[in-house]
Design brief:
Distance between the termini: 29 Å
Order of helices and strands: HHHEHHEHHHHH
Number of strands: 2
Number of helices: 10
Low-confidence stretches: none
Strand order of the largest sheet: 1-2
Helix content: 40-55%
Largest sheet: 2 strands, parallel
Oligomer: single chain
Radius of gyration: 18 Å
Strand content: under 5%
Length: about 210
Amino acid sequence: MEERPPIARVEREIGGLEGLAALSGAEITRLRSLYFEEAGRWVALRDDALLVDKWPLHRNKVPIIHRLFPDARFVLALRHPLDVLLSCYITNFRLNSAMANFLDLETAAWVYDQSFGFWEQCRRIMGIDSHTVVYERVVENTSTELRSLCAYLGLEWHDSVLDHQRTASGRGVITTASYAQVTEALYTRARGRWERYRPWLEPILPVIRPWI
């Protein structure tokens, strides 16, 4: 389920982070049901399937997700921070309150720093169960990286996992900003692309350097 709003609906019901501490067991059960009811509007839910709720900015929803689903596993997809920020800056996102943060590099860098700082704090305090997938390693050794991911998720390995082009082509409309890339073969040309724009990225390096 890619970039859909069930968690946002649940967050509104709770009243934001401030409402988490007061939730009763009955309320958590109701909110879980609400989440799956909302998810069912976007994806076919099955008892024998694992639901992957994919949205990069869900890093900022970790306390809510963990409170409702304490056994949830988190996959953290990483890429060189300056490649991430460059990509977000030059992508023509549909403008909303989240994507407005990428209209200038200084704001984008601040959001990156705050978001990952919050993730690290949540991971440390809450003991979040997470697995990191690094883009640069995926394009170099796809099978090794994806086998490790499947093992973490408790999924049986199938060689078809490596045929992402067929999988993407069979999914119909893809709503993420990278829709044009997901049907391409894996390539390395985007790795380190930020280096060609170094003079313009220099001002944000002090903020981003710790994450590099």
